[in-house]
Structures are given as C-alpha cells and as structure tokens.
Amino acid sequence: MARNSKVRRLRPAPAYTVAADALRKVFIRDLIASCALGIHNHEKGTRQRVRINLELSVADDGRPADDHIRDVVCYEEVTDALRRLLAGPHIHLVETLAEEIAELCFKDPRVAAARIRVDKLDVFADAESVGIEITRVRSSH
Predict the structure, then answer these.
(1) Among residues 10, 59, 80, 92, which one has the fewest Cβ atoms lying within 10 Å of its Cβ?
(2) What whole-number distance in Å separates Cα of residue 122 and Cα of residue 5?
(3) pTM for the whole thing?
C-alpha cells in the first residue's frame, strides 16, 4: 500500500500539560534609544541615551492554536510602541517614563504583569548607568 504524501500527519500529544497558572515570558532586552528625559536645565531641549529592558508575564495556555502571531503578545508590536513613546515629548522623571512604558504594555489584555527597567546611560562618567526598575501587576477587577 502506497503512502499518500498529501495526508497531514497528526502531531503526537505533548508529553506535558500546561498548568492553569502557567506564564509565558515575553521580553525585550537592552533596547537603546535616545529620549527627551530629565529635570535639569542641561537635560531639557536635548535627548539622552536610555536602555530599556522589559519582561511581560502572559497567561500561557500552551501552543498557539494556529501557529499565528495573533495568538501571542507580539514583541515587535511592543517594541514599535516603545520606540514611539521614546520619540515623544520631554518627560521629566525616569519614574514617569517607566510608568508610561507599563501603561503601553497593559494595553494588551493578555499581559498579567510587567517588569520594566530604565537606565540612563550618560549621567555619570564613573557609572555605567543609573535608573529604576518597577514591577506592575494587572489588577483583578
């Protein structure tokens, strides 16, 4: 009996189950961009380098159903939104920038938590960077 090469083979069932509280981590590491940021007079009217790291916790219900980008939180879309934010108007505090980044991450309802780190890279000659890191969790209501 000849095999029909056009018959789609079924995938075997995975050797694991996905826990009800499983999370998928989506991350962007070491994105470096210029940003209008700072409270000091010498920082106003100029742009300075920042490094952004973020990690998003997303409810994970297993393999994306159709192997399609719509089934996941897309790091490209998050990165594009982040670049638009960084290209925007002056922000005084690095804390405000981190909160605005968190806000844009939570626009996707699948994001359960976000950890955001913002480093200002050129503040002190004897320090690689200064900045903050925040963790935000979606409220349950």
Answers:
(1) 10
(2) 60
(3) 0.81
